[in-house]
Write a structure and sequence with these properties.
The structure is a single chain. Helix 1 runs parallel beside helix 2. By secondary structure, the protein is of the alpha/beta class. The relative contact order is 0.17. It contains 7 helices and 10 strands. The strands form 2 sheets. The chain has an 8-stranded mixed β-sheet. It has a two-stranded antiparallel sheet with strand order 1-8. Helix 2 links the parallel strand 3 and strand 4. About 30% of the residues lie in helices and about 20% in strands.
């Protein structure tokens, strides 16, 4: 099975929502700037990006995230967008609040999530069905999450009409709804952040996500809709767009339902026993 670039994405700027501008999100934003520049050089209309993040740049973010000491205290979304607009002549938007799937602020063609709370992903996954109205064009959802030295990227549908549904991260990992991350506190120092995560992991997972998007636009199709990164082993393994693989996750309903978790078998292509959720 192949994923094909929606025809509408060739005719107008692709409307992108980026939820999270921290560890992975700030690097993913830089990738969007580069990809926008490359697409425009190929006579494509490029992107219209809106970035959502309520947090401010802290000293602990410097070095691991794409911020500089002079930006400490500024809102992350506004800082990234203002920098890109000024340097590249763009007209992208920043929203200094969390992305709320009940009020997505769209319409969007592509939702990118790089958030550090599993329940946020679960809420986004559940909310798609509750949004009223027809879906004239599919909305894709690209999620990037990581742990200490491992990460995964999953591209699937958030909302779509008709057949050909590709499961998103919440449909492959419905256990996201049950992960208790309420006790996770932000790191107080760069040393504490680096003790929890390898320095290159955020940039690595952002680059894999960018590679998926680049191939989708450049080749018009994808045979894989995600990947699993393991920096300790220096490996990147693809997630094939194959219903037989999706069944191994416990997902088999083309309309978006999750099959019983007992359907998991050996040979599951996931790199870990549960999804990585840090953004």
């Amino acid at each position: 099975m192949s994923l094909h670039l929606p025809e509408a994405w060739l005719l107008r700027p692709v409307r992108v929502a980026l939820a999270g501008a921290g560890g992975t999100g700030s690097h993913l934003f830089g990738g969007l700037v580069s990809l926008d520049c490359a697409l425009r050089a190929l006579d494509h209309p490029g992107f219209a990006v809106t970035v959502f993040d309520p947090d401010r740049v802290r000293p602990a973010n410097i070095g691991r995230q794409a911020f500089w000491p002079g930006e400490i205290g500024q809102n992350k979304a506004e800082t990234l967008v203002h920098r890109a607009n000024l340097a590249m002549g763009l007209d992208w938007a920043a929203v200094p609040r969390r992305f709320d799937p009940r009020r997505p602020g769209g319409p969007f063609d592509l939702l990118l999530t790089a958030v550090d709370r599993a329940r946020v992903r679960a809420d986004i996954g559940r909310r798609a069905k509750a949004l009223a109205g027809p879906v004239p064009e599919p909305v894709w959802w690209l999620d990037a999450g990581n742990a200490e030295s491992e990460a995964q990227v999953v591209l699937g549908h958030w909302r779509a009409a008709g057949a050909g549904w590709v499961p998103n991260v919440f449909q492959l990992y419905p256990e996201l709804a049950g992960i208790d991350d309420a006790r996770r506190a932000p790191s107080c120092s760069a040393a504490e952040s680096l003790a929890r995560q390898w320095l290159p992991i955020n940039r690595a997972v952002a680059d894999v996500a960018l590679t998926l998007l680049w191939r989708l636009f450049r080749e018009g199709r994808l045979d894989c809709h995600g990947a699993f990164v393991d920096l300790a082993r220096l490996t990147v393994r693809p997630l094939p767009a194959d219903p037989r693989v999706w069944v191994s996750f416990g997902w088999a309903d083309p309309r978006g339902g999750a099959a019983p978790r007992a359907r998991r078998r050996g040979g599951n292509p996931k790199s870990t026993s549960r999804p990585e959720t840090t953004g």
